[in-house]
From TrEMBL:
It comes from Paenarthrobacter ureafaciens. It comes from the Bacteria. This is Energy-coupling factor transporter transmembrane protein EcfT. It is a multi-pass membrane protein. Keywords: Cell membrane, Membrane, Transmembrane, Transmembrane helix. Its main location: membrane. It holds the Pfam family CbiQ. The keyword Transmembrane helix applies.
Length: 216
């Protein structure tokens, strides 16, 4: 299967100020942008924040094309959301919601473009360690995120490949020709991933508590 872009920008080597910023600070920026998406009520403020983040992204050296790709991949969804919100709540509210989503996307893209994946996962493990007292497993949590980061591009790529193949056969309007092959390849991929984890001793039955014995 050919490579496909992911929703967020891939890591780009560099020595910019953003690259050298501590990971915890980048996490705080992403969290602040997520919180701001609920607090900002003026679309002009959202636009200013988005412009600032876009400028920071370009300062990382990742390039305008990577930024455009990250935005372009969510454009169809934002178009639907924006149209619906415009119809329900008016233009300014629709613009604010769409811009706030873009703020979150660009902020997360800055994080992933300036931080290696392994460093991100190590940071997640450190953040999750305080939750051990409630039974959380930070390593498994990081592994789940790693699998998600790998699986989403695969599923997106599978859909793109199947769509191209269906278009070549004149079946692009046939839901079965699009959905069924993607479903089959996704299930196969999930089973292969599960087998690989089991081969490494992860996700085995011994890792989980046994169910209580049946009555009688």
């Amino acid at each position: 299967m050919r490579g496909h872009g992911f929703l967020l920008a891939n890591y780009v080597r560099g020595d910019s100020l953003v690259h050298r910023t501590p990971l915890w600070a980048k996490f705080l920026v992403v969290a602040a942008c997520g919180a701001a998406s609920f607090l900002i009520v003026d679309w002009l403020v959202s636009l200013l924040v988005l412009a600032l983040l876009c400028g920071i992204f370009l300062l990382t050296g990742a390039g305008f094309r990577r930024l455009l790709r990250a935005v372009w991949l969510v454009a169809p969804i934002l178009l639907v959301i924006g149209a619906f919100q415009w119809w329900q709540l008016g233009g300014p509210t629709a613009a604010r919601i769409v811009l706030n989503v873009l703020v979150c996307v660009v902020a997360a893209s800055i994080l992933t473009a300036t931080t290696p994946v392994q460093d991100l996962l190590d940071g997640v493990v450190r953040l999750a360690r305080p939750f051990r007292r409630w039974g959380a497993d930070p390593e498994r949590f990081a592994l789940t995120i790693a699998i998600m980061l790998r699986s989403i591009p695969f599923i997106a790529g599978a859909f793109s490949d199947v769509r191209d193949a269906a278009r070549a056969r004149g079946l692009e309007r046939n839901p079965k020709a699009l959905i069924l092959p993607v479903f089959i390849s996704t299930v196969a991929y999930a089973r292969q991933t599960g087998d690989a984890l089991a081969a490494r001793g992860l996700g085995e039955a011994d890792d989980y508590p046994e169910p209580p014995p049946g009555r009688g």
